[in-house]
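Posting this for the archive.
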Amino acid sequence: MKEVGVMSPHGQTLARLGSPLNEKGRYARERINTYKYDIDAWTTLASEAQARPISEAAPLYEELLATFPTAAKYWKAYVEAHISTNSDDAAKHIFSRCLLNCLHIELWKCYIRFIRKVNDSKGQDGRDETKKAYDFMLGRIGMDIAAGPMWLEYIAFLRTAPVTAPQEDSQRMTSVRKAYQKAILAPIHHVEQLWKEYENFENSISRALAKGLLAEYQPKHFSARAVYRERKKFCERIDQNMLAVPPTGSIKEEQQLTAWKQLLAFEKANPQRLEPSALTKRVAFTYEQCLMYLYHYPDVWYDYATWHAQNGSPDSAVVVFQRALKALPDTTVLYYAYAEFEEARGSIKEAKRVYESLLRNSSTANALAYIQYMRFTRRTEGSEGARKIFFEARKAPACTYHVYVASAAMVLCIDKDPKAARTIFELGLKKYIHEPAYVLEYADFLCRLNDERNVRVLFERALSVLPPEESIEVWNCFMAFEQLYGDIPSMLKVEQRRKEALSQTGDDGVAAAESSLQQLITRYRFLDLWPCSSGDLDHLVRQQMMAQRLSGKTEQQALTSGSGNGMGGNERAIPASGTEGLAASFPGGHIVRPDLAQMIVYDPKQGLAGGPIPGQVPLSGIGPVSGFSTLGPQAGMTFGPSLLGLQHQLAQGPLPPGIMSSAGLDEILNSLPPSLSSFFSRLPPVNGPYPDTEVVLSILLQADIPSVPSEGATQQAQFPQRIGNPRTSAVINSLASELSVVSRGHTVVDGATGLPSNASDAKGHGDIPPFKQSNASKRKDPEKEEDQEESLTSQSRPASRDVFRMRQLQRARVGTSGQATSTSGGSGAFSAEPSGSSE
């Protein structure tokens, strides 16, 4: 037999809409039955509705707009479907439903087109109706940043009005002038075009009159233009096609919420220095547009209502609160906000209606609603009215022990009647004795009355009926009570009973009941005073959490000291007890902590402590060297502090573990050619995990390194086969390939002359470069000459940008280290000074 499921009312409505046209439509309906605000599914059904005749699509449009009542694009599609079938009455009815709540420029454009279509054939009467529609539209949405074309359209409509008498022409000019003067003061698109047209309009009528009017409105217009430029930046971040759905926490929703709040803050700041009435209208318009997209955000509704209240418009605030409750009927906090607003301004009857509507709603009629209604009644009608609400709440299905605690607290604190308060607690105890939280609230109440005897009686009654696994908190509170009010024998007796009772609850109970140093510390603490050091406390808390994880406990039980009380305070009269009291600052179960054993302490003066970095690739034949950075991608190995300036650190003391010794460093330097060894010896100390690349390049560019004629002969020219130590072979081979890359990308400078090395070989032609000498002495084939010139230029042309940078680096090095920056035989090329004497 086929099983029939229960369909939600939303799904039943969709089922009445008829079968979809295709499989995609049926799938979309299934998704909507699962989640009401599935945007992709609704988009599919909206496309299906547009493909159907309006008689079949109307139910789908109605359901679509019931889900998204502020979706201007769907209202526009719905009304256009009626207009296309000449259903003018239906179109007017739809416009009356959506225009005031959907301040979207495209929807209002559709409205104007419809009005003009209906009234164009009615002569002057129809023209008057059209003018009224334009005035109504621009009064509502004329401040929208995209309303510029509508102002231009309206002015064009006014200027084309037929004139049969001179008086009518004067009235027409006056109407056009007023429209221009309103438009040029609005921070909207095309505001500059509107100003130019207004100038031409005034000058075409009277230049003398135009001079005075333009001088009057020009400063205001410039202010509007400046505000428009700033306003445009905020509006560009807003998605005008976003549908209003309940917040899901997505990044896009958060971005849109932030964008709207920034725009609202901008408008409230009044950058245009508007009059109070104009400013109120501008901000209210922005809020209305914001609610088109953030319709399900209670904070936006609340901000809108409180803004009206703070600006002296309480009636407008009431309207906003009522709209908010209609939009979000299940948002309890909006009921409280509305009731508080009405109570604060003295409208007690209206506030009472709000509470009554709150309790009539099955989704909001909970224990908290009865408690707040009871408190409201006590404030407005006295204790007798509050007592009636309490008796009513006791019979309600939503009643919990919180109602009894709140009523007893009210009687004790307001009526000063502890006997009546105890009676209320006793009534609740008959019903909620199996609730540990209620037992603890009652015990706290008795402790405040200094009724020690009844406190012990209460604990004994509760522990006799509570199962062991639910009695841990009560046992802890009982033991804390004895520590505070009892003596040592009674305290030890309760502790022994607690251990025996909790040992029946399994591993967790045994761990909680086990006598340890933690219980002793908790026993002798007071407030924030502890009988041990903070380090001991941390150690004990870690041990406790480790024991909980080993026993499979993933979440820590609620602490006695962490739960609130009904007396209006945040701390109990009975302090927390047991091992849980030590972990009060760790309320959340398992805490993810970093593995400190894997951390390496870095000191710029001492390098890396702790040996090689885990996962590093050691140098072949040299051993692991820590802290190395890659010198070049072609090298295939790494170089670090042991080569890059480490010789400056050798005199300061022994190196950290993992760094090669001075003997190994000297062996490598002696194995290198003189120019390369000189280069490494001049490198500055490494102040950080990586050397300064620009400093290294500056020294490299000034080094006396012979040019490499070809890549194949690089190693033979610079690294003769006199290196027989296998420990350094990998280093030399890698440096060879690295230097071949460097020599191809940078100019090689001769150390004696400060000129490029190939220029020093030229046979005395003054300052003419070698390739210019060749061109002057010998004619070559044009193509070969061009290739040769390009090749020689790439090798010998100095890099002016590098020279300027090197000069800055040299000056910086002189200021920081105090050492001479000019190197022997090579400083002249980069400091613009001769390498010889200064004479």
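The longest strand covers residues 602-603. The first helix runs from residue 9 to 15.
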